Predict the 3D structure of the following.
Amino acid sequence: MRHIDKTVVGLTIAFLALLFADFFMAEWMRFIGLQSLARGTVALGLLVLWRTGLVSFGHALYFGFGAYAAAMLTLLGYHDAFFLVFAGTLIAGLLAFLLGFLLRRYRAIFFALLNMAFSMILYGVIVKTEALGSTDGFSVLAPTFLGYAPEGEAVQTTLFLFTLVFTYLITLGVHLYLKTTLGGMSMAVRENEIRVEYLGYSAEKVIHFKYVLSGLVAGFGGAIMALAIGQVDPDSMANWTVSGEFVFITILSGIGNVAATFVGALVFELIRTYAFEYAPQFWQFILGGSLLAIIMFLPDGIWSVLSRLRKAEKAPSP
Amino acid sequence: MNIMKRSGRVALLATGLAAAIGFTAGAATAAETVVMAVPTFLTGAGAPAFGVPARNGAEVIIEAINKGTLPAPYDKSGKGLAGRQIEALIYDESGGGVKQVAEFRNKVQKQGVDLFVGYISSGTCAAITPVAEELKMLTIFPICGTPRIFEEINTTPKYVFRTMGHATADGVAEALYVKANMADVKGYTGINQNYAWGQDSWRDFDLAMKQLMPAVPASDKAQWPKIFSGQYGAEISALMLSEEPLVHSSLWGGDLEAFIFQGSARGLFRKKKLLFSVADTSVYRLGKKVPTGVILGARGPYGIFAANVDTPLNNWFRKVYIDRYSTPPVGGSYQAAQGVLAAKFAYDKAAAANGGKFPSTDQVIAALEGATYQGIAAEVHMNRSNGHQAATIHQIGILEWDKDAGEPIMTKVATFPADCVMPPPGVNGTEWLKGGMKGAKC
Amino acid sequence: MLTLIAILVDGLIYSSYLFMVAVGLTVIFGVMKILNVTHGSFYAFGAYMSATLVGIYYQTDLPEFGGFLAIFGAALVVGLFFGVVLERGLLRFLYHRDEHTIVLATFAMFLVLEDVLLMIWGTDPYYATEPMGLLGFIDYEALSYDLYRLSFIALAIVVGLGLWLGLTRTKWGKILLAVIFDREISQAMGINVTVVFLVTFVIGSILGALGGAYIAPTISVSPGIGVEVIVLAFAVVVIGGMGSIPGAMIGSLLVGISRAAAVHKFPEIELFVIYAIMAAVLAFRPEGLFAPAQARKI
């Protein structure tokens, strides 16, 4: 074995540790963890896009689409988590596939804003639809897992386990994808698209593929969120501020490593939770302030702190 | 070794951070207090109209409970809830249902909250109901309006209560008032915000009108401005050009005030009869700018409708509130106060039944289920939805400006009994309206 | 017929409102390629400052029409202060970073300023309706319009014309166009891009604050007004073409007139008008109606 992928090893250790921790974690912490996994997965999709130099300010579109798709299926009588999450993911991916034909032609800020514009259209449709509870949204019953119908705390424990397994697989998949030729093309597209095309690859196709990937994982995050919270509503699922939060998490995490997005998502949840607790009227101030501080002082996200520590560790002291 | 070290980095962060916080921070509550979480809008558009008045109302009552200074009928039950002091955690309801559910769990599991008295938006209440039941957490909704809480989301609640009438009552009372006072009205139209509350309000009023005054036509061009749009020029023109003389509106807060300013400047209120279902929130604040002669509701006997209710409790409440916040209490203040009083009533009653010992949550719930207690302005009957949904009298009147007192007053107030405007126990509001409001006792 | 007149007048008023709300955003985007989310805060601060100053003004015995000076004064004070502080204190450190980071920084700043607003003015709403009462109203058959809101149209025309003339007929305008076209070459030609950016940002800020300040007398100045404006301004700018002033004008007119028509004819769909136009424009001309051409980088 000449080469062992450290990220894969690290992810696996984290996965096993969290799997074990699931049974001991404080309930509120598990809930924060669940949300971090859901939001982190969305950020993972954004990371893939970001490596190509593209940022979407509208991924609440796919997040909301996945969430509402899963939630609406429960209204039709489907309650199996595997089916709901799979369907939510797939439907969001399909939408990304369709919109991708248009969006893959745009770069830079135009790409970001067109995404935002599309997400606002979804928001408008939901608010207008009384059958879906308009701004109130509607509640989602606790899911079953291949016939197993947990109750009480077991719902969250099982859901966490379920989410953890899939998140682990998705993260591994994305990581391995980024190492393939097509995945590695990201940076090339970002640096010089036309040269990529001279090499015989279609930059638009590369982007389109990544876009669909990001839509799929955002749909997954949304479906998980709908099941975890037991409620969908447009303001917390499809509003432009939600998209802003995803970009926030991506910046917080940095794009150095797939695992970073989950750490970023967790840090985000914790900042928000504690800001809410200690400054009930001024939590936005704290949230915005932390974001500014990170942008100014940690331009490459929290992951860069660890890289720096590692370098310091390696450097022999004179 | 090196590999382990580096890959450990990923593992360490992901789990270490989570675990460190998750395992260490336990819920530490002093045994001798009752921790009451009070979520209400402290930021955003909901704050001035509902959130802050509600917080103020709750604060006045909580403080009086802790000091034992509540007047009759609560003057004999001692300090605190069943003898224990209330520790109030007031926090922001903004950010949508999902964030509030997360916050609810945090408060329960991390901060050891004993009960919730709060939530203003119907959306939040709808999101919280299943979680409150799952976590077995006593939760009293003092304000939110949607009937769906106990009609669809949970028809057999155990831990969730609502201490005011729901939105169906508003629509019915308004239609009854129109029937009694504007028997020859030629038609009606509306302007309601295009979101859940506005849609529900118009539907209930429209359904009630179709039952009570079937000959009166509704406009097919009722206006649906986007919530928080703030500019109503085209809507006002459309209302001026419409044939219907009566305009129903459930606008509130900043939208309502902007509509009033822009409508007044163009003489809308001289040309049309307006019916505002929750305008009491802005009445005192607008002062002389209020449009007089409009039909007004406050979602029950609250705020300006209670200005002249002469009971020790109400006189005391108004005085303390005005002294402290230099403005009279509005609907939200009364409703939140009524919610906190439900807790006071239930804990004390349960303690009495428990031989004076501090009651368990189940005993508190048993004490509140189906009970009748004294709110600030009116009696509250917890007699709908298995004793979890309140019914109270409902009032509608005409707003006028009292030149001598220099304040707005209600005139031609009609009072409707609870059983007249609320569907009977076990009956779905919309079906009740569509079926001709059978069993209403007016 | 009366309905048609109403649609036209209401549409023009609303278009002017949209233009005033959006123009500051479009100016900053056009020159600096920054989607300035803080624009919403400028609007809100402009409105609060205007309400405060107007309130103070009418407690004095000064001539009634001077209230308008308070409005423009508020816009100037807010725009200058935030424009300079934000550009010098924050944005200039971020110009070398990618544009998404800058958008996010303005988003963060917006969150911070939302709460600063609460700290300064609290949650109670402010009213400054005096200037609106001052101008009175005109009647036309069953309709009547207040002159204050009609004056939106005049203000929008003045602002739009002023910007257009400034851009096309002055040396400054030419410099600005050069910077918009190619930042690096302009710099090489001796244009002080730093100053151009600062001035542009301040002008954009003043325009944002002016929107809030001038609209303040017609609304209840209360928490949350900034958020709504961002979405609206953003939609107009997307429809018209990001960064184009004529685009913002056409976008405003398109949305304003269609919305008025919807309100009068099909009120049920009012909410959708803006989204529908946006969707249509995006589907057929995603760069917006008047977007400047983009050179492809090799």
Q: What stands out?
A: The mean pLDDT of chain A is 85. Residues 6-314 of chain A form a domain with the ABC transporter involved in vitamin B12 uptake, BtuC fold (CATH 1.10.3470). The interface with chain C takes residues 53, 55, 57, 102, 105-106, 108-110, 112-114, 116-118, 120-121, 124-125, 127-128, 192-194, 240-241, 244, 247-248, 251, 281-285, 287-289, 291-292, 295-296, 299 of chain A (CB under 8 Å).
